[in-house]
Amino acid sequence: MNTFSKADKNTLLFVIIITMLAPFILNPFPEGSAMAQFNAGYPDLMQRFAIFGILAVGFNILFGLTGYLSFGHAAFLGVGSYSAVWMFKLLSMNIIPALILSVIIAGIFALVIGFISLRRSGIYFSILTLAFAQMSFSLAYSVLTPITNGETGLQITLNDPRILDGGTGAGNLPVTGLFGLEMRNTFTLDLGAWAFQFNVGYYICAIFLILAFYLSMRIFRSPFGLMLRAIKTNQTRLNYTGLNSRPYTLAAFVISGMYAGLAGGLMAAMDPLAGAERMQWTASGEIVLMTILGGAGTLLGPVLGAGFIKYFENIFSKINDNVLHTWFSILPDGLENAIVWVLHFFVGKGWHLTLGMLFMLVVIFLPGGLMEGADRIRARFGRNKGKGEDTPNATNPAE
Amino acid sequence: MDQFLLQVLNGLDKGSAYALIALGLTLIFGTLGVVNFAHGALFMVGAFCAVSMQKIFEISKITIDATKTDFLGNPLKVKTPYVIEWFGESAGNAMINWSVPLAILLAIPVMLLVGYIMERGLIKHFYKRPHADQILVTFGLAIVIQEIVKASYGANPIPTPAPSQFVGSFDFGVLLGMDPNAVIYPYWRLIYFAFSAVIISAVFAFLRFTTFGMVVRAGMADRETVGLLGINIDRRFTLMFGAAAAVAGLAGVMYTPINSPNYHMGMDFLVLSFVVVVVGGMGSLPGAVLAGFMLGILESFASMNAVKEFFEMLYLPSIDQIIIYLVAIIVLLTRPRGLMGKAGVMEE
Amino acid sequence: MGILEVQNVNKSFGGLKALQNVNLNIEEGTIHAIIGPNGAGKSTLLNCFVGKLVPDTGTVMFNGQSLLGIKPHEINQTGVSRVFQTPEIFTDLSVMENVLIPCFAKRDGAFKMNALNRVRNEVDIQEKAEQMLIDVNMIDKRDMIASSMSRGDKRRLEMAMCLAQDPKLLLLDEPTAGMARADTNNTIDLLSEIQDRRHITMAVIEHDMHVVFSLAQKISVLAQGTVIVEDLPENIKGHPKVQEAYLGGAH
């Protein structure tokens, strides 16, 4: 561990504490209180925090360091999910072989797609990855139906062979696990009015998130990471310095594809099904948004961005007109209705509109994301500790 | 032979749409240096201009006809569209019938305005920002436009029929001495193709023969120099953006009878239009048009039963869904600049 | 035998003949200046050395190896470094990081997947980069972000980056363009010091005759795409062909 500076160690420690104590931190409001709807400490959502955290951390290795904007990362997520479900169908419900296959297959996909897309840079690259993602979506949705089960999505069934577990052909559908430890197991700790849930699946995801984060930290601080940042700044100089940028970008692309594959595999490990919609361009857009919202090129930003988006997606989607009416019931009726009418477009099914707006606002006003925002606030209050190594590259496109 | 001809014809309408969107994308990219991920949304907004026109014409006045009763025994409420009330039976009905072509009149000012607001309000501030930011902000805008349309018009496709005179098909086969019904082609698709041919020619003529067009072409070739000549290039760029928006919008209006518009049609077309631009060659207008039609026709060929069956033997059913991407990959691997791409465009 | 031998190089852009039968011979260990009026083809020639352009015909041999048709990074790995007219540096990175990159490139080659090492722990590379910064007198600026420096500093940084690779041939495209007189003199001193200490062969494109005659041991005069004279500095002054090229070419 002595390879990292003090600031880095603190960041890592912060991530470990946050993820390990998440069931407490995300559950601040007592059960049954009016605020309980803002709790996020239940297994399903916490798993998503960790999984999308991994996804964003991986995307950041490509976009944050090299500046290559991929619009097709959801494809690798989907590939990871499909691979994992196939492993559950053919081999065993143990998540380890499933995750290994997810990462490998996603890596191979990334190698092929990257090899072609990276022949170009800038806008061209973004368009190519977008086209590849749409193609993968079409492949999954219709062309490769025998492998992906098309529209319905790929699921496990009782008749699957499952060589290692021995297909039973009867009884309930088996559940995913780690050497017998079931992912769905949850231990609930009741403390007064609070009920804290500790879920096996979440902790598995959390451990992978910490490992993923640690690895990305190593990459950021390595000579390889330095070259990737150099590519973002000035590729011409890099070439005239005797360095071949292509294998560097390809390696970054494959690594971040493997991260996405891991995330997809984990998704399937938590809930063993895979559908084509996971690969759509909207999903890719969401990954980009998480990363830039948190702060592309920073270590911690993508994790925060993923948590932020997934939290608000969850909260916003649950709010409907009735909830709004109860919130604003103290206001006069006309005003109440007017406010509810306006907000109606942004909550519930209108979450995507909020997402789109957020996207624009972040790009326009805060290109460095939440991390830049935090820096600005810190600077304003005069406690300018200096950026140090924590944000080596707090992307400042203004120059 | 007749099958062949049929597929060429079938490919033309989609090809026209691709070509028109790709043309606008190329114009904006060539002049402003911005890749507009919201261009598909503009196409969709155009389509919804047709929907709006139809809805406007169908706004009805409700009168009570005391002489008749409905099935519950209440006096019958009769809906009379205002257009019929104002312009008389035959003119009013004709307007409702022709609402799609008439929507062009609505679409032109709407699209110019949308384009103007977009360029002045948003895109302008992104000329000097990195490409990634331009992509991201227009992508966000595309989502916003799409969601607004979804919230206002619902998620389901809305049927917008062509004027009744154009329902039915033209029998091409008879014209060429083949059996009747061998090669038939819906009238409206024929009109769509003709319409897009006119628009494309108009754009090219405009760029070729007007001073404005000359400046734009010069700007596409070398933006900085034109800026140095003291020509107010900013204002021309705004106009250019408005024009590109209008082209996309008109393509959308006229496309509605072919496929009922829905809120995500824009993005579906955008991705393919990008592929078209890349295949045609970034920054090349003729390339965009050529590749648009080529890929449209190719897609149509891939949906032929014989072709599909062949690929099904290779375990690739519905090859038509991905044929465009496959071709794009092959083109890029063999001709990285695209079919008609110029040297030095996006090759950093 | 020169370290860089250019024979019969032709290059045209469309109808414009930028280079016509250019012959050039740069001796090892010398500073060779290439001068000529604007548009004479100096930069085109330099671009042919580093793989940015490929000549239509002719040969470019470096150390007995042809440079034609190989990629810029491969040319650089054979020992040719270039300083650009407008400094090409990694603007978002710190000064130290800017110098670290060529040090890694020198040691590890065009690509090495060392994603798990730590930049800080690469002691030999760190020391070399520091030494480089001391040599160009920039060690006090090691943690500055490169984009925030003055133009002169950027150029010195670029020079340090090139020198960090221990090149056999250093190409300099107007190294003093846009510099104040004091900075120009510093650069002259720096270059001659480098030459004394490391015996690096240099090819300099320059407009400023003060720089040219302070540094060059040999001068080639390029006019309208051809080398009209190649001689020692003392013979270039007052050479009739050179005067004609400058007076006839300059409007």
UniProtKB/TrEMBL annotation, chain A:
GO molecular function terms noted in the UniProt entry: branched-chain amino acid transmembrane transporter activity
A matching Pfam family: BPD_transp_2
GO cellular component, one term: plasma membrane
Membrane topology recorded in Swiss-Prot or TrEMBL: Multi-pass membrane protein
InterPro entries listed in its UniProt record: ABC_transp_permease (IPR001851), LivM-like (IPR043428)
Lineage, broadest ranks: Bacteria, Pseudomonadati, Pseudomonadota, Alphaproteobacteria, Rhodobacterales
Membrane spanning residue stretches: 12-29, 49-71, 91-116, 123-144, 200-220, 247-267, 287-312, 324-347, 353-371
Record key words, sorted: Cell membrane, Membrane, Transmembrane, Transmembrane helix
Compartment(s) of residence: Cell membrane
Protein name, UniProt field: ABC transporter permease
UniProtKB/TrEMBL annotation, chain B:
Gene Ontology terms for molecular function: transmembrane transporter activity
Membrane topology: Multi-pass membrane protein
Transmembrane annotation, as ranges: 20-51, 98-118, 190-216, 237-258, 270-298, 310-333
Major localization listed first in the record, in broad terms: membrane
Keyword flag Signal: no
GO cellular-component term (any): plasma membrane
Keywords: Amino-acid transport, Cell membrane, Membrane, Transmembrane, Transmembrane helix, Transport
Keyword Transmembrane helix: yes
Superkingdom as given in the UniProt entry: Bacteria
Gene Ontology biological process terms, A to Z: amino acid transport
Location of the protein in the cell: Cell membrane
Family to which the UniProt record says this protein belongs: Belongs to the binding-protein-dependent transport system permease family. LivHM subfamily.
Descriptive protein name: ABC transporter permease
TrEMBL record, chain C:
Cross-referenced Gene3D superfamilies: P-loop containing nucleotide triphosphate hydrolases
Record CDD domains: ABC_Mj1267_LivG_branched
One cellular component term from this protein's GO annotations in UniProt: plasma membrane
A GO term for molecular function: ATP hydrolysis activity
Superkingdom of origin organism: Bacteria
Keywords on record: ATP-binding, Nucleotide-binding, Transport
ABC transporter domain ranges (all copies): 4-249
SMART domains given in the database record: AAA
Name the UniProt record assigns to this protein: ABC transporter ATP-binding protein
Biological source species: Paramylibacter kogurei
Taxonomic path: Bacteria, Pseudomonadati, Pseudomonadota, Alphaproteobacteria, Rhodobacterales
